[in-house]
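agent: user wants the structure for Hydrolase from Streptomyces collinus. delegating to structure tool.
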Amino acid sequence: MFDDCLRERPAREGAAYVPFDAVHDYGESVNGRPREDGVRTFLAARGVRLPEGAPDGQPRTQTVNGPGTRKNNFLVATVAAGRAPAVDEDAAAVLEDALAGAEAGRTGRFGLVVGVAGVGQAEHLRAHGADVVVRDLDELLEAR
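agent: tool returned. relaying tokens verbatim.
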């Protein structure tokens, strides 16, 4: 979701392209934050400043909301793929820490949407479709 922004910047500024690291960058800048805050934090760490853009803007626009929209479109497509005849979505679960992911799970009519809450996210996840909210997935094992 970030690599388009990261590829274009070096081309404009003559810097080396360093791709998004799904472990380090995600953990340091994105995880546990609302989507737009994660985008801002990650891009700021790389010295990239973008305009906010429209919340429902085009996914390929170079704005803070562009990458978030691109990820949301991916989630919706993933949920739609879950409607294949071999998959009974009402017997499937979605485990998600992003508000858009919880929303996509609810929209896809999955049997259970589990929100994995970062600080201050529990009520937001519930409001966006999570049936159950935990701080850690181990809590699901404890409930057995």
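agent: one observation worth passing along. The beta strands are 93-96, 112-116, 132-134.
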